[in-house]
TrEMBL record:
One Pfam family linked to the record: zf-C3HC4
Domain of life: Eukaryota
Name recorded for this polypeptide: Putative tripartite motif-containing protein 3-like isoform X2
Keywords: Metal-binding, Zinc, Zinc-finger
Domain RING-type: 26-66
Keyword Zinc-finger: yes
Taxon lineage: Eukaryota, Metazoa, Echinodermata, Eleutherozoa, Echinozoa
Length: 557
């Protein structure tokens, strides 16, 4: 923990030094600028240094660009003083100093923080409640239930801790979206809209915002990794307040205006706006959702494991009401449970695969299901393989099946006739999930912890690689992928660990795979798709074990 904080603080100091050298160092004396003066060519120098350059001449050349200028009637004092840049540097300096102090406070408030103090009113009573109304002070059971604080908002310490952590994760996710908007404005784009002076101002302010974000994220990371509930309760409110202030500052600055200009016409995924509870007595508690797909407007298909030898296909509407449901026993035994994945084939049909080697087409209107075992009609499929994903090319009516063992994609038609094998480039180990868009295949290479866009014309080749999200999370691997009707791409990235780790949804544009949005999501959200509704297209994330589907709006930015 300490090394992480020290590294970030050092990085912040290095950033400060770089800003000082690039924007606040006088190129004449090579020192920090004092009383900086701005020439018409928009280069800056110390007032005293300019006086030495100008001396008694009426005209002089800029020491940097050699542009000739006329000396003002008031001499050097006639040039504009650059107070704004000085103010920004002072703000950055304060941020770095505060970060150093906060680092010590967080380390002191980590896992070694003492347990909650005894009740203030009853000194001998241990505190097991926290009074939110009174600023998260510790109170005993008597005060919280029948005593002084009984009419206040009193919560058990462990319950309040969970609530505060959820708020913190949501706040950091929201803040990161604003940070990314700032990062997407390049200096060149800014110069095309403003003059050079304004461009430099924006660059410095962007660095200031990044430092403030790093400062907040460092504190949040320490709190989230702490095992002390009391520490989390006491430190989280201040972090939330600082996060909200930074978001307000970003929103009110020129950055937000530039971001809207640069991103006009883009679709952005929002934080969770709803939740579909799948309502069915037949949907048992030990069932899983391993895959999700949409068909006609407002109708969703979920597939997954039902028991040790059966899987399910469930069709429900946007309200969670089951329309159809059937369980399917697999034809052959296998060492792994029968996980079932799916992908939309047409408005009325869904392609689906089930471990070990079943591929099929489910007809939504009548609930009929046709299936085949891949090994029975494809000699290139051996007994050690098992299916990992399925994708479709609706325009051609093709079904693509990926397996666990190599880069081969097995392609079938709607009647489940084997067509051919597509061999992915050697850079890819094996596909965990796919999305086929014409001649492009987007591949989640979970084993290689990378995601790619592959061009399939003639010899398949990697066109570009998707950048990983930047939440400060290590060991991220792409898990699931989908594409909306506007061709924006969504990938679920998982923190790979011994247990199922944190999940991040990242949003990309198809042209070049630029990362434009990212957010932390429910750890159980293991499947992803989009759904057309009467209120526009939605992004759906299905929980594997909770019988829930989390809904996110897709809005135009």
């Amino acid at each position: 923990m300490a090394s992480n904080d020290t590294t970030l603080a050092s990085a912040s100091s290095a950033t400060l030094r770089k800003i000082e050298e690039d924007y606040f160092q006088c190129s004449i004396c090579l020192e920090g600028m004092e009383d900086p003066k701005l020439l018409p060519c928009l280069h800056r120098f110390c007032a005293e240094c300019l006086k030495a350059v100008i001396q008694k001449t009426k005209k002089f050349k800029c020491p940097l660009c050699k542009t000739e200028h006329v000396k003002p009637a008031k001499g050097v004092d006639g040039f504009k003083t650059d107070f704004a840049m000085k103010n920004i540097l002072e703000d950055i300096q304060k941020s770095v100093e505060t970060l150093e102090l906060e680092k010590k406070q967080i380390l002191a408030g980590g896992d070694n923080t003492p347990k909650p103090p005894n009740c203030q009113e009853h000194k001998d009573n241990p505190s097991n409640y926290c009074c939110v109304s009174c600023g998260n002070i510790a109170v005993c059971n008597h005060c919280g239930t029948v005593g002084t604080h009984s009419r206040h908002n009193c919560q058990k310490i462990e319950d309040l801790c969970r609530a505060e952590v959820d708020k913190l994760i949501e706040a950091i996710a929201k803040l990161l979206q604003y940070k990314d908007k700032v990062q997407h404005i390049s200096l060149q784009e800014t110069r095309e809209k403003e003059d050079i002076y304004t461009s430099s101002f924006v660059v410095i302010e962007k660095e200031s915002i990044k430092l403030r974000y790093d400062y907040i994220w460092t504190r949040a990371k320490c709190v989230l990794e702490s095992n002390n509930d009391w520490s989390k309760i006491q430190l989280t409110p201040k972090i939330l307040s600082e996060s909200e202030k930074l978001i307000r500052d970003i929103s009110s600055s020129a950055h937000e205006i530039h971001s809207r200009d640069v991103s006009a016409g883009r679709i952005y995924v929002t934080q969770q706006t709803g939740c579909i509870d799948i309502l069915a007595t037949r949907f048992k508690s030990d069932w899983e959702i391993n895959g999700i797909a949409s068909c006609r407007k407002g109708v969703v298909v979920a597939t997954g494991k039902a028991s040790q030898d059966t899987s399910h296909i469930s069709v429900f509407d946007i309200k969670g009401i089951i329309i159809q449901q059937r369980t399917i026993k697999r034809k052959k035994t296998f060492r792994f449970i029968p996980k079932r994945y799916c992908a939309s084939l047409t408005a009325l049909k869904v392609a689906t695969v089930c471990i070990p080697d079943e591929v099929g087409v489910y007809n939504v209107p009548d609930g009929s299901y046709k299936r085949r075992n891949i090994g029975e009609n494809c000699s290139q499929w051996d007994g050690n393989k098992y299916v990992m994903c399925v994708a479709t090319d609706p325009d051609k009516g093709h079904i693509f099946v990926g397996s666990n063992s190599n880069r081969a994609l097995f392609v079938f038609d709607e009647r489940l006739n084997f067509i051919h094998v597509v061999s992915l480039p050697d850079l890819i180990k094996w596909p965990r999930d796919l999305s086929v868009q014409g001649d492009l295949i987007f591949v989640c290479d979970f084993s290689g912890k990378r995601a790619f866009a592959v061009q399939t014309l003639q010899q398949p080749r990697v066109v570009y690689e998707f950048r990983k999200p930047s939440f400060g999370l290590a060991n991220l691997a792409p898990f699931r992928i989908c594409v909306d009707e506007n061709m924006f791409i969504y990938i679920i990235w998982e923190v790979v660990s011994t247990d199922e780790g944190q999940l991040v949804v990242a949003q990309y544009v198809q042209q070049g795979g630029e990362l434009i949005n990212q957010m932390l999501v429910n750890k159980d959200a293991r499947s992803i798709t989009t759904l057309k509704t009467t209120k526009g297209e939605k992004l759906l994330l299905a929980a594997r074990t909770e019988n829930k589907v989390f809904v996110h709006d897709l809005v135009r930015g």
